[in-house]
């Protein structure tokens, strides 16, 4: 009876508590980072349970890209109206800016398709291949549009003439 | 007790309780299987291959094919389809002109279009004007969402119907030009 009382006395409890705490504390010297102790068991890295990695955040691919895309889309409206109102041959510069803006808008749209349906995370070979194919195609299209606008009548003029052909 | 009755072993349990010798035979009959199964051990990668080939053959419940058509998602995919269609036309023509400027220059294109029958001309204009009109008006709807307008269900439906109406009007207007 007195033994139990002695065991449950305040000082003995405090001593026992410190020993228990030290025993349960994670041993940093023993475990490496990948087998760190967390309640529920050690966490092993390198298995199928690893969380997915994210690319480092970059405003060029994030908020700046978003803002650029919206400004471009909004700008296309007055550009198209102006280009068709004035007639392409008289204002070749306007025609050129419209052509480049249209191609950029289309490129961003195609890129969105690839990101949505053929993301490199799921398609490790096809995704990047098509991304670079798209970039090369866009470069070719820009060259073609430039050639057409300089050596021929220009995009707005073509559409206007075909419409009334 | 209830479990043995539900599983269907009630009769067997009762018989084994009353007749101990029958119990031994029953236990052995349930313990040793009638058929012998061949077990073949595989490496983990071979196991994973079998599992993956089984997973590929598994059916999945319909999800995409049974979603009720709604203005929201039909409008969204229509925006994408019209954008892609017009862009493919632009890219295709630019590349064709780059590759073969003699065949695809403006004079040839205008001549070709002028030689088509009137009905084909009107059909062609409609096929070009409608996607362009829809994509443009829906694009403005998207931009207004980006500015925080029409972000309720009612707003989405009202703006969606407005876009459809404007598309029809614009297409007719462009056809008459």
UniProtKB/TrEMBL annotation, chain A:
Q: Which family does it belong to?
A: Belongs to the CybS family.
Q: Which Gene3D superfamilies match?
A: Fumarate reductase/succinate dehydrogenase, transmembrane subunit (1.20.1300.10)
Organism (species): Ceriporiopsis subvermispora (strain B)
Q: Which domain of life is it from?
A: Eukaryota
Compartments where located: Mitochondrion inner membrane
Listed transmembrane segments: none
> What does the UniProt keyword field contain?
Iron, Membrane, Metal-binding, Mitochondrion, Mitochondrion inner membrane, Transit peptide, Transmembrane, Transmembrane helix, Transport
MF terms (GO), sorted A to Z? heme binding; metal ion binding; ubiquinone binding
GO biological processes = mitochondrial electron transport, succinate to ubiquinone; tricarboxylic acid cycle
| Protein's name according to its UniProt entry | Succinate dehydrogenase [ubiquinone] cytochrome b small subunit
Question: Which sites bind a ubiquinone?
Answer: 117
Residues the entry annotates as binding heme b = 105
> What are its GO cellular component terms?
membrane protein complex; mitochondrial inner membrane
- Keyword Transmembrane in the entry? The reply is yes
UniProtKB/TrEMBL annotation, chain B:
Q: Which Gene3D superfamilies match?
A: Fumarate reductase/succinate dehydrogenase, transmembrane subunit (1.20.1300.10)
Q: Would you kindly state one Gene Ontology biological process term found in this protein's UniProt entry?
A: mitochondrial electron transport, succinate to ubiquinone
Matching entries from InterPro entries are given as: SQR/QFR_C/D, Succ_DH_cyt_bsu_CS, Succ_DH_cytb556, SuccDH_FuR_B_TM-su
The residues forming a coiled coil are none
Instruction: Spell out the GO cellular component terms annotated for this protein, sorted alphabetically and separated by semicolons.
Output: membrane; mitochondrion
What's in the keyword line of the UniProt record? Heme, Iron, Membrane, Metal-binding, Transmembrane, Transmembrane helix
- How is this protein situated with respect to the membrane? Multi-pass membrane protein
Q: Which PROSITE patterns match?
A: SDH_CYT_2 (PS01001)
Query: Where in or outside the cell?
Result: Membrane
Which NCBIfam families does the UniProt entry name for this protein?
A: succ_dehyd_cytB
Q: What is this protein called?
A: Succinate dehydrogenase cytochrome b560 subunit
To which species is this protein native?
A: Ceriporiopsis subvermispora (strain B)
């Amino acid at each position: 009876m007195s033994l139990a009382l002695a065991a449950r006395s305040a000082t003995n409890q405090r001593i026992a508590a410190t020993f228990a705490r030290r025993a349960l504390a994670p041993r940093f010297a023993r475990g490496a980072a990948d087998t760190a102790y967390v309640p529920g068991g050690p966490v092993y890295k390198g298995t199928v349970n690893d969380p997915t990695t994210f690319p480092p955040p970059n405003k060029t691919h994030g908020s700046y890209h978003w803002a650029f895309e919206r400004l471009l889309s909004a700008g296309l409206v007055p550009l198209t109206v102006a280009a068709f109102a004035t007639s392409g041959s008289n204002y070749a510069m306007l025609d050129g800016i419209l052509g480049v803006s249209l191609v950029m808008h289309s490129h961003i749209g195609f890129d969105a398709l690839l990101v949505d349906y053929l993301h490199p995370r799921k398609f490790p070979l096809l995704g990047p291949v098509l991304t670079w194919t798209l970039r090369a195609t866009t470069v070719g299209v820009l060259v073609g549009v430039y050639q057409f606008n300089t050596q021929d009548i220009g995009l707005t003029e073509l559409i206007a003439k075909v419409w009334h052909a | 007790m209830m479990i043995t009755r539900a599983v269907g072993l009630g009769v067997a349990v009762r018989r084994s309780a009353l007749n101990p010798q029958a119990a031994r035979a029953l236990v052995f009959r349930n313990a040793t299987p009638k058929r012998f199964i061949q077990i073949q051990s595989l490496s983990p990668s071979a196991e994973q291959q079998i599992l993956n080939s089984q997973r590929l053959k598994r059916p999945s419940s319909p999800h995409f094919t049974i979603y009720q058509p709604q203005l929201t998602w039909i409008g969204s995919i229509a925006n994408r389809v019209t954008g892609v269609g017009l862009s493919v036309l632009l890219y295709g023509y630019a590349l064709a002109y780059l590759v073969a400027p003699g065949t695809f220059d403006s004079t040839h294109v205008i001549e070709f279009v002028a030689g088509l029958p009137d009905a084909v001309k009107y059909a062609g204009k409609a096929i070009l004007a409608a996607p362009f009109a829809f994509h443009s008006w829906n694009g403005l709807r998207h931009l207004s969402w980006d500015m925080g307008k029409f972000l309720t269900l009612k707003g989405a439906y009202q703006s969606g119907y407005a876009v459809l109406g404007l598309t029809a009007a614009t297409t007719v207007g462009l056809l008459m030009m």
